[in-house]
Amino acid sequence: MDHDVVLVLGGGNALGAYQAGVYQALHEAGILPDRIVGASIGALNGGIIAGNAPDRRLVRLAEFWRPGLANGDWSGSLHDTWRRSWDTIGYLMAGRPGMFAPLGSSAFSPSPPSIYDTRPMAAQLAQLIDLERLNSGAIPYAATAVDLETGEEVTFDTRSGPIGIDHIRASGALPPSFPPIAIDGRLFVDGGIAANLPLDPVLDTPPGRPILCIAVDLLPAAGARPGTLGMAAERVQDLIFAVQSRRTITRWQERYASAADGGGRQPVTLACLTYADQQPEVAGKAMDFSPTSVRFRWDAGYRDGGALVALLRSGTIIVGGPGLQVHHLPDQQKAKAEHPA
Questions:
Q1: For the chain, how many structural domains are there in total?
Q2: Is 158 within a domain?
Q3: Long-range Cβ pairs for the range 107-110 (8 Å, 24+)
């Protein structure tokens, strides 16, 4: 291969099952990452991928996302919207095994307090991630976080120092739900607060040859006009994060287009996959870990990942073009369907 493959995984908590489906499609096509950068749930997924041998990655992702029925689907055979709503309430009240303990369990912990306890996440990740492999350099891995007190954006990168479970937890420590993580005397919180789709660590220091950067975003910029308060809350949640991602991409397009900053850079093909098929989702979707919802998102990611593979193989998306070439899925696959070769 005459280019590097970089996987950038954004935040979105329970929506992260979509990223697992995308990775499955890429893995089955033999498109394996040479580097991974993640924020929030993307850092967890990325750590599982980078911290396992290729033949164990899908198994470990499945163990994380499909650990058995656990709490199960709380609402049985209700209409899907009601099911998702009730399942969300169930996980808010009871927690999610392997991620966070029940509501109020750490409300009186040392300052700053949080609603949930993420020590179960530490134990789960320790079982799923081979830290020796993660830090071996086989796949350079990075997780982003934010210093709670100074607001400084920080990238924990295996190329500059060892990464442990706490670094990965810090990337997903969204307050006030999850507690900040102390590392070397500093408190760190969710990297998605600053950049939910962490493209800067990749484009700031690109490799010495062309790259295919596959960025998997979990919150769509486009959506239907809300008709209820719940839909309005969901829409605002999407926009808060999706707009910052769009601005980041626009900023890099402008930098690559400028002679002063874009000249001499290696070509970058940026393929943005967004979990756009969210019509069935509800306002509390980020906390709905029910098996049915996880399966829906994983399948959506697998479908969209397969579409990206098809676009690459057909030459619709060409790696190595001049400058920064940006392709948005599902827009790109819709165009191909409407105007087949």
A1: 1
A2: yes
A3: 109/179
